């Protein structure tokens, strides 16, 4: 089912349907502010494995996680490095992804990540509403290998079809924008991929930040 979240009635229906789908181990397509993504319950190993199969990813490919709040992130780590906390407070929700160590007690299987994970709080009201109901989700770009990234949920549906249970349409997204990635598991933190947030902007918050060579 595809729901047009630009109308209040369908948005409410769509969010409810997507929450039910995620909690039952199914995949959903959602807007994230930088792209349309396809996501699964981060704590459902079968759903995450299905998402990897759909994308043709091996376990060595990082499974990025999205959360609905900083408080959710706090529940996924033993302790959040000070640099990570300062970056999150400055740039979340938004286009910043950070790498941090997850709590070893977490019962999830997001791939071979050596105890770390990539996480972001997206800046999109539909995504935030969904994530605050479902909890953490693994979310990847909603395009099959070799296909053009979709700019609408309708285009995503043309590629993914019945492999996805619920599509949340929020209108054209424009060209997909890669999020900025900072590895906060390193000391000092390391900028791995610049995006709309530049090295200089990030260093204004975390002066010890370094760049990858």
UniProtKB/TrEMBL annotation:
It comes from the Bacteria. It is an enzyme of class 2 (transferase). The keyword Magnesium does not apply. It is found in: Cytoplasm. GO terms for biological process: regulation of translational fidelity; tRNA processing. One of its GO terms (molecular function) is double-stranded RNA binding. Its EC number is 2.7.7.87. Residues 12-197 form the YrdC-like domain. It catalyses: L-threonine + hydrogencarbonate + ATP = L-threonylcarbamoyladenylate + diphosphate + H2O. Keywords: ATP-binding, Cytoplasm, Nucleotide-binding, Nucleotidyltransferase, Transferase, tRNA processing. One of its GO terms (cellular component) is cytoplasm. Belongs to the SUA5 family. PANTHER family: SUA5 (PTHR17490), THREONYLCARBAMOYL-AMP SYNTHASE (PTHR17490:SF16). NCBIfam families: L-threonylcarbamoyladenylate synthase (TIGR00057). This is L-threonylcarbamoyladenylate synthase. It comes from Actinocatenispora rupis. The lineage of its organism: Bacteria, Bacillati, Actinomycetota, Actinomycetes, Micromonosporales.
